[in-house]
């Protein structure tokens, strides 16, 4: 069967959901040349927000990592919707991770590892990326984490 992104997802027990529809006046992804940019993805599973509130108050770092992993799964779902084939990914260029957190929470980078580790596992060498992890006061729908991505396509 070969070492494909789909095989690695299957080995991890991950089935990509249908790509989430926009919640406001924007598109879920946009392509410019060979770059695909995703809108921010929330930690949704089966259409429901799975992590809400602030890191450092309502959630700990481990729960934030799990939320970031869900965001990464939803990023892949958007890429699948945009391209029809995850094998079109040449490389993941950058992700920006927004972490709703209390002013004294300083582990945004560790929360972001939930997405970075998952994407590196699934995409292999193509999954090594630049990253920003930013603490914010609040996110849409009171989500704990939101992640956007820039992907280079083949």
From TrEMBL:
Residues 7-147 form the Endoribonuclease L-PSP/chorismate mutase-like domain. CDD domains: YjgF_YER057c_UK114_like_1 (cd02199). Pfam families: YjgF_endoribonc (PF14588). SUPFAM superfamilies: YjgF-like. It comes from the Bacteria. This is RidA family protein.
């Amino acid at each position: 069967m070969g070492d494909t992104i789909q095989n690695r997802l299957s080995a991890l027990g991950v089935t990509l959901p249908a790509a989430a529809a926009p919640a406001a006046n924007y598109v879920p992804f946009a392509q410019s040349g060979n770059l695909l940019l995703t809108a921010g993805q929330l930690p949704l599973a089966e259409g429901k927000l799975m992590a809400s509130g602030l890191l450092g108050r309502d959630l700990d770092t481990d729960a934030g990592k799990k939320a970031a992993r869900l965001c990464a799964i939803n990023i892949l779902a958007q890429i699948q919707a945009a391209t029809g084939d995850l094998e079109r990914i040449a490389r993941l260029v950058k992700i920006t991770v927004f972490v709703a957190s209390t002013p004294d929470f300083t582990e945004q980078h560790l929360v972001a590892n939930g997405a970075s580790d998952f994407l590196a596992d699934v995409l292999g060498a193509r999954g090594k990326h630049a990253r920003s992890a930013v603490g914010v006061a609040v996110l849409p729908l009171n989500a704990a984490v939101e992640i956007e991505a820039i992907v280079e396509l083949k």
